[in-house]
Amino acid sequence: MQHGTVVLGAIGGYLENTFVGSAPDADFYLYRSENPAAEIPEEELYWIEAAEEADRKGVEIITTSLGYNVFDNPQYSYTYADMNGNTSFIARGAGIAAEKGIFVLAAAGNSGDKPWHYLLTPADNAKVFTIGAVDSSGNSSVFSSFGPNSLGVTKPDGSARGTATATVLGDTTYTSTGTSLATPVAAGGVACLIQAFPTMSRDQIKTKLRQTASLYPNHTDQMGYGILNFGSLYNSVLNTSEIVKKEKFALFPNPAKNILNIASENSINSLEVYDNLGRLIRKVDHQKSVKVDDFAKGVYYLKIQTSDKVYYEKFIKE
């Protein structure tokens, strides 16, 4: 289906010199739980089966661009009171996935300009990280569904570009609109954060994403805590050393031209260099220097692995 293709493209798409998704080098499992011919409650169970299979495969992030409130048989449809995170099967399943350590993201829904203007399930679950949509000016997209959930939990948690969002379809760039697009853009940012800070808990990442969003500590019912700022979170963690503790490391010269050296009293197992897109550029084992002469000018990130800890340092190639 084209919907699933453009959603995937927003995360994993790559066209040289033209387009880069939010996490182009991630590994993906794709599951289709929707029945395009009907809207039936069984689809919630299909999603749960897919989530269980993803968990068995060691998946770290689930991004979901679907939601439910109305079924073909109205006796199964939900009311706003049901949007409490605990009523629908899919919300309960998503909550269990989050409890097991999977970072679950869900689109808030595209009902903001409709009589039913609330979020959809499973975006109503408190443990799910719910994404609303904004336009290029940073305003809430008119279609982006409103929170909170029916228990008063702030939803969405944050927002990302969802109006005319860039993606790829086949071998060309493409734009599409919806919280379905805002969610994978955000999911790619989460993937990069997990790669950068593998020891940070999922709950810590969620909290810090809210705290670095554009409206925090305030929020609105349509935008949540505001536009997510992954770079701000990344830099705040490095600057405060709350999660990444720098102990007796020094990089020199920095900026570097040819070789970057690491002065350390600790034994180093490996050095990994990543660019601004989170791509691994070079890895060396059991060395305290790495060649950078063939790198383009810019900012890079060094991951230092010792026998028992991981450290991160920023450096500049001039």
Notes on the structure:
By secondary structure, the protein is an alpha+beta fold. The chain has two domains: 2-239, Peptidase S8/S53 domain (Rossmann fold, 3-Layer(aba) Sandwich); 249-317, Immunoglobulin-like (Sandwich). It is 24% helix and 23% strand. It has six helices and 15 strands. The strands form five sheets. Strands 3-4-5-6 form a four-stranded parallel sheet, with helices on both faces. A four-stranded antiparallel sheet has the order 12-11-14-15, with no helix packed on it. α1 (2-12) packs parallel to α4 and α2 (42-56) packs parallel to α3. The protein is elongated, with a radius of gyration of 21 Å. The N and C termini lie far apart (45 Å).
Main features:
Immunoglobulin-like, 6 helices, 2 domains, 4-stranded antiparallel β-sheet, single chain, 318 residues, Rossmann fold, 4-stranded parallel β-sheet, 15 strands, alpha+beta, 24% helix
List the helices and strands and how they pair.
Blueprint lengths: L1 H11 L1 E2 L3 E2 L21 H15 L4 E4 L24 H11 L3 E5 L21 E6 L23 E4 L3 E5 L2 E5 L2 H18 L5 H10 L18 H11 L8 E4 L6 E6 L5 E5 L5 E6 L3 E3 L6 E8 L4 E8 L1
Parallel strand pairs: 3-4, 4-5, 5-6
Antiparallel strand pairs: 1-2, 7-8, 9-10, 10-13, 11-12, 11-14, 14-15
Q: What's the overall average pLDDT, rounded?
A: 92
Largest sheet: 4 strands, parallel
- Name the CATH superfamily classification of the largest domain: Peptidase S8/S53 domain
Shape: elongated
Biggest sheet strand line-up: 3-4-5-6
CATH class of the largest domain: Alpha Beta
Beta-strand percent range: 15-25%
CATH architecture descriptor of the largest domain: 3-Layer(aba) Sandwich
CATH topology-level name of the largest domain: Rossmann fold
Q: Give unreliable regions as ranges.
A: 241-246
List the total number of helices: 6
What's the total number of strands?
15
Structural class: alpha+beta
Q: How many structural domains can be distinguished in the coordinates?
A: 2
The percent of residues in helical segments reads 10-25%
